[in-house]
What does this fold into?
Amino acid sequence: MYTSFKEHLTKELADIKEAGLYKNERIIVSPQGAEIKVNTGKEVLNFCANNYLGLSNNPQLIAAAKEALDTHGYGMSSVRFICGTSDLHKQLEAKIADFFGTEDTILYAACFDANGGVFEPLLNEQDAIISDSLNHASIIDGVRLCKAVRYRYSNADMTDLEKQLKLAQAQRYRLIVTDGVFSMDGNVPPLDKIIELATKYDAMVMVDESHSAGVVGQTGRGVTELFNCKGQAEIITGTLGKAFGGAIGGFTTGKKEVIELLRQRSRPYLFSNSIPPLVAAAGIRMVDMMSETNELQDKLHANTKYFVSQMVEAGFDIKPTQSAICAVMLYDAKLSQEFATRLLEEGIYVTGFYYPVVPKGQARIRVQLSAAHEKIHLDRCIEAFTKVGRELGILKNNDSCGCNCNCGK
Ligand SMILES: *Cc1c(COP(=O)(O)O)cnc(C)c1O
It folds into this structure.
């Protein structure tokens, strides 16, 4: 059989390459950070990690993880309910609930699992899930595993959400689900309005704060902080793999009965290993750090503001952002790839996105800011963008002459 299956796979792979969608991995040989080294020996500035708070290589988290290795060993070799629950898991769950102002938390191996395991235990064919059209793949998959009736509304569109909520009155319970930050544009959903509509149409709200936790809101508590609705969403999911240290792990936090039932019925929790104690220990230190100081959030917000304003001034077309994601619009797919390649030659590592990851004709480069970036990193990035932008003739105040013209640059 494998002979014909191999031919089939070879053709699939060739099709992916043909469509220009083949993903090659770059190999990093240094810790994650603002400055990274790749296996060719080249050093580049990294503007495409989810390392929003620069914690991926934070000395305090490393020390906490090392200490836990000595006190708790390496792995648990068990799911949580058999013999895989350590005191560190329980402490981290309590800390996360405290951070978001929720009642209880359940940890997963990843947020992909948290989202995969949240709907099916809570809702059935009598119920409705009303989901934003740009929600993360893991939410889409989680919804697929659940028998609830599905409704979809256009991205952050409250008129459409209201329409779907009216239709969903036919069901018993209703759950509105949204990402906290949409990862391609960096926009956020109007959570205050969503909660208003949820109240009006008798629904519950779930927010996936994966890209917003640690980032959005003055103290990084996410979109519930940004819109002054802390504690009002019944369910929040999130990851330890982005701003929160960047290692591995996910969580669902919210109403205590919800979490209690998930511990009994959520399949990725019941049938998958618990996170290593060292990851839990570093997570505990991470939440403590964020309660001690707001330095990292302040720096990230300042960095984002500076970067966006300088890029707009340089003549780039930037999508309005309320997160640490900055979409530099180029519209043309080929141009986005050429631009990213040229930037890498200039020592700036960013990713170009085009259809089908973003809509047709909406190709862009996504820049992700971090508290790990110093002003010198930001300036080097802006300079490189401006240089390549001039070369490729895409700046609005199209100054392609190379600066011998008193243009002030
Ligand atoms: C990254 C992300 C996830 C997946 O998180 P992992 O912990 O890496 O599995 C889930 N939801 C959203 C919105 C994300 O951005």
